[in-house]
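[recover] target loaded
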């Protein structure tokens, strides 16, 4: 049994003109194994973040469902932690307090010493020694996202959900934190589901990459396996033939094949490709 199963989910949102509903994505189904790092890639509007929010329990699927360890998800839970692109830190709390809040919520029976040990370990892991007493306003974007990663990893969730976590960080800092994430994941072997626009990021981090067609009415087109050996670093993989092959395949999909598959699916359903609605 896989750890996580996304069971043929479909999502409708109300149409902006009030006439019926727009199908964001349809019949998305895949499985994530224990300890796997799976990333979803696709253009804006294909519903990547909505899929993540449904797994997190922050939104509900219109059809289908999500099963975690054999039980259907009915809402948010500490067994799934989300790292958002907008950092989502408590602005009045220090670095230590932000991480401690999550650990205390995940392990209410722990003693203060146990909580402190866990918080210290993960703050050390993301390289924030010396910044423990700083509040978010005094941190750079990269440091804020390090706090988010420390907070999420420290709770040791069954599934870690990353919603374009590096989108608001400059390119140089992004590369550093991506490699820190590789190191943290290698040490913890958390099960991770991430959504991103960044093809290179997906290849560096993932075991498998799920490719979505264009939205609306997006579909999961295929899942490709990343066969590059671990541990990985950007400097090591960039000259690998497999990296070049995989990158070319994904970019070709995003530029050409995604739209073709979406239009083909629309034609088969008998509906126009850019105006798929459900009326009541």
């Amino acid at each position: 049994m896989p750890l996580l199963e996304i069971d043929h989910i479909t999502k409708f949102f109300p149409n902006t003109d009030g006439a019926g509903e727009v199908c964001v994505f349809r019949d998305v189904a895949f499985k994530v194994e224990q300890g796997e790092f799976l990333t979803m890639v696709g253009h804006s509007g294909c519903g990547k973040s909505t899929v993540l929010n449904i797994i997190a329990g922050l939104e509900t699927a219109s059809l289908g469902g999500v099963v975690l360890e054999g039980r259907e998800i009915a809402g948010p839970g500490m067994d799934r932690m989300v790292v958002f692109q907008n950092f989502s830190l408590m602005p009045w709390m220090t670095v230590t307090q932000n991480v401690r809040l999550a650990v205390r919520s995940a392990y209410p029976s722990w003693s203060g010493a146990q909580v402190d040990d866990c918080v210290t370990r993960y703050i050390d892991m993301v390289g924030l020694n010396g910044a423990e007493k700083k509040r978010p306003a005094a941190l750079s974007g990269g440091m804020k996202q390090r706090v988010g990663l420390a907070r999420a990893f420290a709770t040791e969730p069954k599934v870690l959900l990353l919603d374009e976590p590096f989108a608001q960080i400059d390119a140089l800092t992004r590369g550093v934190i991506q490699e820190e994430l590789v190191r943290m994941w290698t040490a913890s072997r958390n099960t991770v589901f991430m959504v991103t626009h960044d093809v290179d990021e997906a290849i560096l981090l993932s075991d498998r990459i799920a490719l979505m067609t264009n939205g609306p009415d997006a579909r999961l087109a295929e899942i490709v396996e990343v066969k590059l050996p671990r541990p990985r670093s950007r400097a090591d993989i960039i000259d690998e033939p497999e990296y070049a092959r995989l990158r070319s395949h994904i970019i070709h999909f995003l530029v050409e094949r995604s739209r073709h598959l979406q239009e083909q699916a629309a034609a088969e359903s008998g509906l126009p490709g850019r105006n798929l609605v459900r009326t009541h």
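[recover] notes: The helical segments are 48-56, 95-106, 112-125, 141-154, 171-188, 199-205, 234-237, 241-269.
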